[in-house]
Amino acid sequence: MDPSVALLMLGPFLLGYLLGSIPFGLLLTRAAGLGDIRNVGSGNIGATNVLRTGRKGLAAATLLLDALKGVVAVLIAKQIGDVAAVGAAAGAVIGHMFPVWLRFKGGKGMATFIGILWGLSWPVGAIACAAWLLVAAVSRYSSLASLLSAVVAALSAWFLTDHRAALLLTLLVPLVWLRHHENIARLLKGTESKIGQRGQAATTSGPGATA
User: Fold this and answer.
1) Which of 117, 104, 122 is nearest to 151 (CA)?
2) What is the C-alpha to C-alpha distance for residues 193 and 157, in angstroms, rounded to an integer?
3) CB atoms within 10 A of CB 72
4) pTM above 0.70?
5) How far, in Å, are 56, 130, 131, 145, 203 from residue 152 at the CA level?
6) For the segment 153-188, what is each residue's pLDDT rounded down to a tens digit?
């Protein structure tokens, strides 16, 4: 990478990282008097684990805010340019997954990934959401829908966005999949819970529900 391009991306990356690392799931559950979400269920700070508290409204708010921090980071950086927007997008997802405030133990990143899609290219964001809905409707697996919609987003980005944005999304897909390794293991074993299944934690509908 050209050193000047890397330098241009550094500031926006840090901005995106700081925004992405805001642990909304933790903050909202604490504000609601539910204690530390990291002591509940999987210990994850994302919307799915927040749902394990039984508070659907908090889970939905977590999902929305985790996506919005990705959108906001990208839109702010876009005022500088497209290269800066890519840097901010990368920072937002990595910040959510590895927040400095929580000793780098964060969420799975899907909600924030969806957020940066809408910020970088709304058609790609729309395609990813449509893919999520289609896979979820057919399979009833929220995690599978998230994993496949991330791949669809990266592929569509090569046709609809700047090559730098497409490359970033392509590089982020393996990271998103890695963060979902437990879900993948359960899918392979046939033990992953389906959407709407009684006792299932992943009933928060929408892309990023496994965030």
Assistant:
1) 117
2) 30
3) 19
4) yes
5) 28, 10, 7, 10, 22
6) 999 999 999 999 999 999 999 999 999 999 999 999
Token pair recorded at residue 4: 């000047």
Q: What is the spatial distance between Cα 90 and Cα 64, in angstroms, rounded to a whole number?
A: 19
| CB-based contacts of 5, cutoff 8 Å, min separation 6 | 83
User: Distance between CA 24 and CA 45 in Å, rounded?
Assistant: 8
**Amino acid letter, 120:** L
Q: What is the pLDDT of residues 45-74, one digit of tens each?
A: 888 888 888 888 888 999 999 999 999 999
SS (H, E, C) the chain: CCHHHHHHHHHHHHHHHHHHCCCHHHHHHHHCCCCCHHHCCCCCCCHHHHHCCCCHHHHHHHHHHHHHHHHHHHHHHHCCCHHHHHHHHHHHHHHHHCCHHHCCCCCCCHHHHHHHHHHHCHHHHHHHHHHHHHHHHHHCCHHHHHHHHHHHHHHHHHHHCCHHHHHHHHHHHHHHHHHCHHHHHHHHHCCCCCCCCCCCCCCCCCCCCCC
